[in-house]
Design a protein that fits this description.
Largest sheet: 7 strands, mixed
Structural class: alpha/beta
Number of helices: 11
Radius of gyration: 20 Å
Strand order of the largest sheet: 6-2-1-7-8-10-9
Strand content: 15-25%
Helix content: 40-55%
Order of helices and strands: HHHHHEHEHEHHEEHEEHEEE
């Protein structure tokens, strides 16, 4: 098979519902071209002749669901995206938290970590801070709904736009925490030693339960409708300590949602008890 037939309106509606069921992502009919482009190679790999055939396969074959999730989720991220967030984390959050929690280990959750640029940005700043405050300790949990993209984060290999971005914005950190590889650059083991990885759907509780000082949930809510936004925020709240911080993306706001957070700083929210 060289070309799959176009999505019919009926199949597209069912496909959008299936995306929402398995990921919580709210897609519209305007995403038909995107879905066709992402799913067509899978149809070819399975020698299927229509999108309906593929939908039937996802419904009947549990193993295919993981492939489906990998295909329909968005994993676009960069190192140190939105400098304002990283300036806050480096200059305000880390020194303030350390003063308030002497002797404790900072626990961070990079939720929807995608290919890992965010979590390694966090790790680099924590490593830099540790050089100033040797007693500082930290742990990062990196999670994502896609096993394929989580494996990419574990591998820590980067090229193209990701590397160009950090080469321009933080050349000193690129030299310090990455080594050249045939692929492009490789994250040094130093950045990975305090990171763990977990497959996780943001609509569900984290298992086993954990409590974090700060949760990075950036550029994720924009893909959910209001109902699922509230669910995601509620699950994150259950995993935050009473003085925890939630960090969102630059285009996201939760002002109209009943979520138990209070605005503190652009893109930064604190738990209501803090």
């Amino acid at each position: 098979m060289t070309h799959a037939p176009a999505l019919t309106p009926e199949v597209l509606t069912t496909l959008i519902a299936l995306v929402r069921e398995h990921t919580g992502i709210a897609m519209t009919q305007r995403k038909s071209i995107l879905l066709e482009r992402r799913l067509q190679p899978r149809l070819q790999a399975l020698s299927l002749h229509s999108y309906q055939d593929y939908l039937d396969r996802v419904v009947s074959d549990r193993d295919e669901v993981a492939h489906f999730i990998d295909l329909v989720t968005t994993n676009d991220t960069l190192f140190f995206r939105t400098p304002q967030v990283w300036d806050y984390f480096r200059d305000r959050y880390l020194p303030g938290w350390t003063r308030a929690h002497p002797g404790q280990t900072l626990k961070i959750w990079s939720a929807a970590a995608a290919s890992g640029e965010e979590l390694y940005s966090i790790a680099m700043l924590c490593e830099q801070f540790q050089q100033q405050v040797p007693s500082f300790r930290y742990q990062i949990l990196a999670s994502d709904i896609s096993q394929q993209i989580l494996n990419a984060a574990k591998a820590g290999q980067y090229s193209g736009r990701s590397v160009e971005r950090i080469r321009l914005s933080h050349p000193d950190l690129l030299r310090k925490y990455f080594t050249a590889s045939p692929y492009g650059v490789q994250v040094n083991q130093q950045l990975q030693q305090n990171v763990s990885f977990q497959l996780h759907n943001l609509l569900e509780p984290l298992r086993p339960p954990q409590r974090f000082d700060v949760v990075f949930l950036r550029n994720v809510l924009i893909y959910f409708d209001a109902e699922h936004q509230e669910t995601v925020l509620r699950q994150a709240r259950h995993s935050l300590k009473d003085d925890g911080r939630l960090i969102l993306g630059e285009s996201e706001t939760i002002a109209r949602l009943g979520t138990g957070y209070q605005f503190e700083f652009p893109m930064i929210y604190k738990t209501a008890e803090a």
